[in-house]
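I am still learning, so would you mind making up any protein sequence you like and the tokens describing how it folds?
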Amino acid sequence: MTLYGVGLGPGESDLVTVRGKRVLEDADVVYSPGRLSKSVVTDHIPERRIGDLDFPMTRDPEELRTAWRDAASEVAPRARDGDAAFVTLGDPNVYSTFGHLRRTLDAFHPEVDVETVPGVSAVSAFTTALGVEVDAGAGLALREASQGKSPTGPDRMVLFKVTDAPATHEGLVDDGYDVTYGRRLFMEQGDTTVTSDPEEIAERDYYTLAYAERAGLQKDRPTAFEDARGDEVAGDD
């Protein structure tokens, strides 16, 4: 049978895809790695069908490897004998805990079939909330900015895990970026915040993103009005 990695989207239960909802309803057991993802899942299936997996909040590599092996050992028998799901906020393949589980299953339980059901990613939620248009042909880099990091280089970046916004902001501004922050966007849990002032979100929160764009970046965006004027002028010639 199969383990499904299901993306729940940014956190509002009605942003789960139709396919994701169907997999959740059909799975024998649905594993949730945390309380926020669990709160979304319980809007779609009874809590008694949800299995909890314990992942420590640590950067110790050996402790993390042990936790993922334990999780794989719990999930593998259920996925061999039936269908199981592992849920994650956002998309399972974008800055997600699901990748660790999938790789561990591949290494220790290769007999388990794994499929991914994509979800609305934090990037999509972020650009929508801020009204940021990523034009065709425009580059957009994804970076992690935990613990005050300020990655630089690309003209446009979406930064995940901005846990120290003032420190990150200082580095980005010094390198010539305009920055906007979004916290808990399209999430039912907590207050949504969109701001250009890092002091408003100085308190640590894992679910904070930033959009950084080079100040003065030139954008060539043709409009219907401009196209019409161009046709009119060409006709006069």
Remarks:
- The longest helix spans residues 61-81.
- The longest strand covers residues 177-183.
- The mean pLDDT is 89.
- The two ends are 68 Å apart (CA to CA).
